[in-house]
Amino acid sequence: xxxxxxxxxxxxxxxxxxxxxxxxxxxxxxxxxxxxxxxxxxxxxxxxxxxxxxxxxxxxxxxxxxxxxxxxxxxxxxxxxxxxxxxxxxxxxxxxxxxxxxxxxxxxxxxxxxxxxxxxxxxxxxxxxxxxxxxxxxxxxxxxxxxxxxxxxxxxxxxxxxxxxxx
Length: 167
Fold this sequence. Notes:
This protein is mostly helical. It has helices at 3-28, 31-52, 58-72, 100-111, 114-125, 130-137, 141-166.
């Protein structure tokens, strides 16, 4: 990569690293895993930067890369290695003033299937329209709506169960 192009890449990544980390954290719920996802995404971006930098919607393209990297994680060989008979539940990250309901929602989001998780995060936490989520996930708007519906139903069930256990 030439000097000027490399400088543009470094400037872009430096300016966007915080929103990318936030999105990755919202998707996976684990700070360290989020950093891994962002790292993989910016590595892919580095290899494609000469072509990507000329695009009209670079941010949308990079967000799409990050979400697809998150979804592709389960296909990697190391993701299939199990040290336990079932995956341990992620520990909720306590935040000052966070209620039991918020912790239950965070834990429930981590337990829905990854694709539904991605749809819920993109639609409700990133406030993206259905069409843009469909583009990011490479599916139809109807699929986004059905995944939203199923994901919300699962979340309601899981949050209700979690809150009943704490009461």
